[in-house]
Design a protein that fits this description.
About 35% of the residues lie in helices and about 25% in strands. The strands form 13 sheets. Strands 5-2-1-9-21 form a 5-stranded parallel β-sheet, covered by helices on one side. Strands 13-12-11-17 form a 4-stranded parallel β-sheet. It has a 4-stranded antiparallel β-sheet with strand order 28-35-30-33. Strand 11, helix 8 and strand 12 form a beta-alpha-beta unit. The radius of gyration is 31 Å and the shape is globular. The protein starts with a strand and ends with a helix. Bound molecules: flavin-adenine dinucleotide. The site of flavin-adenine dinucleotide (FAD) has 32 residues, from helix 1, strand 2, helix 8 and helix 11.
Amino acid sequence: MNPTRVVIVGGGFGAVKFAETLRDQLRASECEILLFNSENHMVFHPLLADVAGASINVDAAAAPLRQMLPGVECRTERVQRIDLHSSEIAISESNGNLSHLHFDHVVIACGAESNLGIIPGMSEHAFAFKVMRDAIDLRQHIVQQMESAEAASDLDRRRWHLNFIIVGAGFSGTEVAGEVNELVRSSTRFYRNFREEDVVVTVVHSQDQILPEVVPALREFAKKKMEKAGVTVLLNTRAVAATHEGVELNDGRMLKGGTIVCTIGTAISPLVQNLDVPKERGRIRTTPEMRIEGQTNAWAVGDCAYIINAYDNKPSATTAQFAERQGRQAALNLVRILKGEPTQPFRFKALGQLCSIGGYQAVAELFGVHISGFPAWVMWRGVYLLKLPTWSRRIKVALDWAWDVLFPRDLSFLNTDTAQEVTHAYFRPGDFIHHQGDPARVFSVIVEGQVEVLQSDPVTSETKVLALLNKGDFFGEGALLGSRPHETSIRARTAVRLQQVGSALFAQFAGSFTPLGDLLLKAFARHSGDIWRRLPLVKPILEGESLGSLIDPLPSELLSTEAIYADAIKTLEQSPTGRLMVVDEKQHLWGTLDRDNINQILARIAVIPLETRGDVTQRKVTDFLVANPVYVTLQDSALVAFATMLDHGIGWLPVVKSNDDLQPVGSLRSEKIVNRLIEKMTQLQRGQAAVAS
Ligand SMILES: Cc1cc2nc3c(=O)[nH]c(=O)nc-3n(C[C@H](O)[C@H](O)[C@H](O)COP(=O)(O)OP(=O)(O)OC[C@H]3O[C@@H](n4cnc5c(N)ncnc54)[C@H](O)[C@@H]3O)c2cc1C
């Protein structure tokens, strides 16, 4: 008889314990165990903060799965889909093809993912803290910040490099704050240009206590110890946005700092999201024995599962302790099923909690006993040492830890060339993205939002808006191509997300890809404001002209975002102006449709594969249009409107109430603006002629 094939998806605490227990219980001839994990190692999350703080080497917090699990077939592959009807998983091969594998039982133990999207700007500017890469990158970045602080001649800039902000004070936030603080403060003696007093480590926490998971006495101890070690703890405070400058708080303050670590926010893995099974707040609901509700051969354990603990009838905590126990007991239940025995519900009394707070200090609550300080720290490290897979590894890690207690932490780092990078950035309304005169470092493409191009008059120092740029527009090319400082400032008008290409990478692209180089040069000619220098009379006239008298009334036909393609084209054909505005359910401007769009829409349809195209005429028109069109507000001048049209090569623009209220109020045509210009210039010339005579 063929052995039962058990496929385990994930390689964390739950999955490893499941595989280990099953291998101990069943022979290879009875059961074939395949474990699929995106990485080839298991991560000991509680030790990640130590990796970031350079107090342990990376290998102490990651254990290779194939060495941990002899007798289990470990595959470093991401499972793309699980089909519970056909009992198959889909995995993508190195050539990009999907391959399918049948299972007799599947165990879903793929944990949770970090989700920085919950606070604007976090995904662009903060470090997540979930996987090994996060800890390694953070460690590199911290050392880099100290090197930059040492080299900075500007005092404010040096302070910015030495400010570290940690968002969230649960286990991971507290541990990472303690470790970052210890690493930076203990390293200041190796630098000449800053001292310990210059270092600021701040924890921002929305509740009135840190470490909500432990008892109040230990929380208080942890907070006092951390504050004594120099960590500032801001309680009852929320981070509302992150930018390149730092973190904006709910009380309006801006905490400036070059390092932001966001330890809050988790997301359900896409694999679980796509699974059509009962869920509770995104987690998979299981029966007490841990089979997925409604399934006979599918199990779920760990952070991705919603499992009621029979010990207290409460949902299990999403911690390593629970994931391990669930993994073990689910495996035993599977063995019982294979042997025709009754299963047992998940029942577990938590053993306690351990949390390191930096500086060889920890808090612990074990079997109801509370321990804090150095003994708790020794116990904390001891517990994780015993969890490592082999004795050779335990001895190696123990020696590393002893070394760390006796000698300073390692301050070497690999210098990555930011000029070769593609990065993301977030700016709040009113934030400057760069100032006129700043050196050019990046080429920026607007992913979301609207920016103003500003230029200040060298004589009067008065700053004026030259044009507006929107989603899909770009800037920074002129200064990079000409190797000179920026000639204009760029300011975010709304919240703005950018994709930014480092100068060296940009030069490679623009230099070797001629059509792009040509396009950039043309765009630069428009962006630079050069046109106004050559038309000195035009600029003041248009600047003084408000939009009110130039606006055409709102057309009677507005398209809804729900409109289908066939209806939209019919409406366009019947429209007297040939220009339509698309509004969302709040009646806010979503997009525009005019005759010029028809060719682009056809090109967009042509790239959709035939097999997935379906009946295009019945699809929503918004599938083919670009959201966030170029627009101006009632408060803008005719100069801004005209420059924006020139910049985008378009002949009309929607006008909305204001930046806060995107309700369309009318539209502007370029010919109307030019006509007004001619009238004003004629008046001016007549006036001058009258004075002369
Ligand atoms: C910084 C930090 C500190 C923590 N400290 C503690 C602590 O002190 N004590 C404690 O008890 N708990 C702690 N936790 C929580 C604990 O780590 C988790 O509860 C535990 O890891 C959950 O185990 P799991 O098996 O469900 O998932 P995980 O350990 O997260 O493992 C899931 C694995 O599945 C893989 N995976 C995901 N999707 C797929 C896919 N489609 N295909 C293949 N593989 C996939 C992932 O790459 C990952 O390796 C901490 C967590 C963090 C982030």
